[in-house]
Amino acid sequence: MKRTVSIIIITALIWMGCENRTTSPGVTDTEILVGNIQDLSGPIKELGLLIPAGTNMYLDYINAQGGVHGRQVKMVVEDHGYNPMKAVVAAKKLIEKDQVFCLYNVIGTSPAEAIRPILEESGVPLIAPATNSSSMSDMSRQAAKYIFHTDAGYDLQTRVLIDYILENNPEAKIGIAYQDDDYGANALKGCAEAEANHGISVQKESFQRGATDFVGQTMNFMKGGCTDVIIGGVVREPVTIMKTAQAIGYSAAFYGLGPTVDPRVGLLAGEAGEGFIAVYWAYYPDSDEPGPVLYQELCEKNNVPAKMRGLYHYYGFATAHVLVEGLRKAGKYPTRKRMMKGLETLHNWESGVFPPMTYNRNDHAGVESVIILQLQGGKQVAITDWRN
Amino acid sequence: MDNLKIQNLHMNFSGVKALDDVSFKVQKGEVFSLIGPNGSGKSTLFNCINGFCIPQQGSIKFENVDLLKIKPHETVKHGISRTFQNLQNVPYMTLLDNVLLGAHRRLSMTDTFNRWISQKEREREEAMALEVLDFLGIANFEKKYLSGQPYGIQKLVEIARALICKPKMILMDEPAAGMNDQETLEIAKIISEIRDILGITVLVVEHDMNLVMSISDRICVLDSGKILAMGKPVEVKNHPEVIKVFLGDEAHA
Amino acid sequence: MKGRYDDENLKWIPILIIAVYLSPFLLKSATFSYKYYLYILNMAGIYMILTVGLDLLSGFTGLMSLGHAAFLAIGAYTSAILVDQAGLPFELSLIITPVIVGLCGLMIGFPALRIEGMYLGLTTMGFGFIVKRLIIAFRDWTGGSAGLQVSKATLFGFTISNDWNNYFMIYTFAIIAIIVARRIVKSKLGRVFMAIRDSEQAAQASGINIAKYKMLSFFISGMFAGFAGVLFAHTNHFISTDHFDILLSVYFIVMVLVGGVGSIYGAVLGTLFIVLMENMFIPLFKDTLTQYMHLEAGDFQAFIFGLIMLLFIIFQPMGLYGMWLKMRIYWKLFPFNPRKRFT
Amino acid sequence: MTSLFTDINQEIVSGIALGSIYALIALGFTLIYKATEVVNFAQGEVMMVGAYVNFFFVTQFSGMAGGLNGWVFTAALLGSIIFALLFGIILDYIINRPLKDEPVFSIIMATISLAIILRSLTAMIAGPISLVPVSPFGNNTIKAGGVVISVLDLAIIICAFILMALFFFFFNKTRWGIAMKATSADAEAAQLMGIPVKKVYRYVWMFATLVGVISGVLLAPRMALLDTTMAYLGLKAFPAAILGGFGSIPGAIIGGILMGVIETVSMGTLSFHFNWVKEINDIIVWIVLIVVLMIRPDGLFGIAKVKRV
């Protein structure tokens, strides 16, 4: 009894005496450790290589400038192979064993969802999860206050695209090809919103992840008389659908969601892809905003091979801005709480890569507007301003 | 008194006649042997009695039960058990367990849920299994796994499994196949004991003529699905057709 | 006659059980990051319940199943729906869910009456795909592809909230499951299952209704999987279709195989071995190795895993349990070499 | 509204093209199963390895030749074929021989672990970034009777049928083929009859990897991007192989094509008219398979094995 009391008193004294100096695990005088869980062996291992590479490029740049408050930012990457179970193991390992300061950029919706309970249990924030599921930033949900979302949801992207289509052609008959998973489910959510707003009905066709053949869907769009088709997919889907449409003599305008903004779409689709319109939630790497310019500079400096440059490498670079800003806001003696509080003070923050971002107690959504790009001569060109 | 009654059995395997108008009766308490060259339909006949094959035509009655109407696993209920030509037992189970498999029908499921409830029942069956093993002369092996045991013992275990069902009739498919002379003698002794001591009808398929001649009460000779001859061993032995087609040299040897 | 059931060396069992309950305390005193290790052990505990059931089906009855992840999924989702949406207490779900999953087992057991071996394996694999699809289709209840948050388990008024409590709950149930499985194997039912595996004819000739017992085997195996599913849902607090990949079914079979087909202790050992190897030893190995050379870590991990599996199957087809038995017999009969003891 | 069967021809033709891919993979399964009774779960991975190897050869040779032309593709194909034959020998040594008499269980697991090894090894060597393969036929398409088909698809269909005919002829008419059949029926007896069983196994694995590699070479350009997920197509070829009846060569081709057509039509016309079909698009092949197996437990062309008592 005596011992317990004395321990409590001593702890309280320490806590009172040096409140501003206490730091969380993962922070030493020279280093801050950040955990990242990527898919290194599963279906999207390509991203698992590219995103951390992009992040590391930016972190190296920051560290070369002296780091954050004199501390070098170091990132540990773990693998989950797109298996939520393994993601939980990796998160436990990072938090309990490697003692990271915060988690950053856990890729995939189900892995990110799976580690929610751990975030709540251990009080570790998750910065910029690499998922476009808008439910991530839904503040009414469990552990949402530990998650700082950056990506614009697919629902938002789909809604904006449909708005844009109807603006240019009020008579348009719209079709959407959606992937048969969470990606597609989110796109359909946005689609339903737009349907309600405009009083239209959208023709929906599904495909599976990894499908190679899209004749059925393309034929259905043709039969349904769609003039504008939105494709939710990554690279193969828009390319194949556009090529198939060209082959069977079906002419429609094609649109894509975020992941289709990939230089390989233009490369592979060739003339069939000319005029392809897609949305994105950051400044595109080719544009001359400060962020993309820095990106180009760093890529040149670090001799990043051409096949690595592109959407996902840039994405890692971009989200690292939010991470570094959060670490800065956490102050000279960072704790996880201070970092979260700091991020919540951001108001219309200009990062140079994202549109103005705002976080506050009731809003962890981050980017809430998107830009529309068009493929012109194999290059993405912005054709609108930020919309939402 | 008729025990097994087979009438006008016809069985076709996609054009090949395996059984062609076979009919015979087996009396209670006799050893009835089926002989014939390979492919003459002996095993098929066994399979028909056992319910593994369904003949196109004919009837098989055992003590007024129509065997063609019941499923293979129900034959045991009506008192017919059998052994197989090539070993059909469970290698990774002890001898005792292999024998107890035959007592399946008499053991209730409570054994699984609580071994104390079914203690008596189990002890009774295990004692009986031991008795059967003792009868066959392999009582000391009961805790051994079957997989490493010699062929002769494995064969005997099959017979034990058939005996523990408390059958009225046993079908034995080549009990002496692959045995040496010593073991064959033993089998012959066991078969006659089964008949004499236990009073069980035995239906045997066998190639070893010495064995057949020494133990059988009656013999039926099959050739390409047809009955060639039937009767006491001596009659069959001297039947001209049989000598011509099948026994040949052996009869005079 | 008494003592046939006790012919094995049972005196180690209480010691093992005590060791199971003591090990978290040891872990806690040994390492600061014990929660991470406990979580992995918990996972192994849940999978153990399932693989023991799978061993009854595939190892003992000889019916190959490549769809056990689907049973786990049905169990997890059923329990989540029953507890969170229908408001049933967790204890009741612990009883009802396995029965429901067992009935699903009967459904897939029905084709098993006609389909055999290879075909059955692939049919159950198809069943896995179908279940995954149906979970997405019933999105009003299951949350579709976005997954489902599940409440914490409440057992007789106690909320089981962290890895520490989970450990004791899971391993209590795992021990019960192992004991039940041992009972099944050592009873009439176990004999029937093995007879069906090794010789259907002999089984039939002994009066065993093969169809009934094959279905029963699927039912029992389904019940074990459903039980594991309940624990899975309420200790992970989040389930999605990504959890129940076809690869997971394969892993379950691997666990059974590595442990030694047709042995309950083998399934337990195999599960522990695979889970620990995949989640602890290979990452450790990889971590030390990547310090010295540059590697694509994820693929390297998968490569090592595949290699160990292949070597195991080629050089140790009897599995871990067989290895242990061989070793035991070797020492028992030390000067003589009983090489042909297990052929 | 258009009627139910408008444009179904196009879907059927595309389905045949898609099905031919499944058929080619299924043919690989079938060949191995026919002679050795091993079900090779790694056939999809063999195909993927073939695609990568061919890609490697194409880039190497085009570097040497200073551009892409017909000769480059031919040389690369030849290189891939030689690789396939060597690869088959290696697989025979590491998978088939040590596991000859093991139960089905172990063999399935062995091929699954082989699949994991091949997939991770490929990714380790080639890197995780997707490659962009080039089609030797470009983007050319052929139009006939209101139906469009790309030259690449046509090549796949023709290749599937040629290989089927070749192997069917081989197994039924040549001495080696009959030896292989005999080996599958009873390896021991075959050995006693003077059939070199070891050689038979080696040849069968060589054939199977050859089929796998050729399908990989053909399929890669159709995938637009080449990565290790290509191997998952192997899983989709399983229902095809079973539907046809494992071990039947025409069965593999017909099963594959049937599955392809069912898939395309269900994604196209069927889901256009019936909304609920969209929910079961990717499992429709499995549903068809289970229904067929319930009626014919050995597939459409499979022959039931009679077990002697």
Give an account of the 3D structure.
The complex is a heterotetramer of chains A (388), B (253), C (343) and D (309). A 7-stranded mixed beta sheet of chain A has the order 7-6-8-9-10-11-12, sandwiched between helices. A 5-stranded parallel beta sheet of chain A has the order 2-1-3-4-5, sandwiched between helices. With 388 residues, chain A is α/β, with parallel strands linked by helices. Chain A is built from 13 helices and 12 strands. In chain A, helix 2 crosses helix 12, helix 9 runs parallel beside helix 10 and helix 12 crosses helix 13. Chain A starts with a helix and ends in a 6-residue tail after the last strand. Chain A folds into 2 domains: 198 residues, 3-Layer(aba) Sandwich (Rossmann fold); 127 residues, Response regulator (Rossmann fold, 3-Layer(aba) Sandwich), CATH 3.40.50.2300. Chain B has 253 residues and is of the alpha/beta class. In chain B, the strands form 2 sheets. A 6-stranded mixed beta sheet of chain B has the order 6-7-8-3-9-10, with helices on both faces. A 4-stranded antiparallel beta sheet of chain B has the order 2-1-4-5, with helices on one face. Chain C is mostly helical and 343 residues long. Helix content of chain C is 75%, strand content 3%. The N terminus of chain C is likely disordered. Chain D is mainly α. Chain D has a two-stranded antiparallel sheet with strand order 1-2. In chain D, 57% of the residues are buried. At the C-D interface, helix 5, helix 11 and helix 13 of C face helix 4, helix 9 and helix 11 of D.
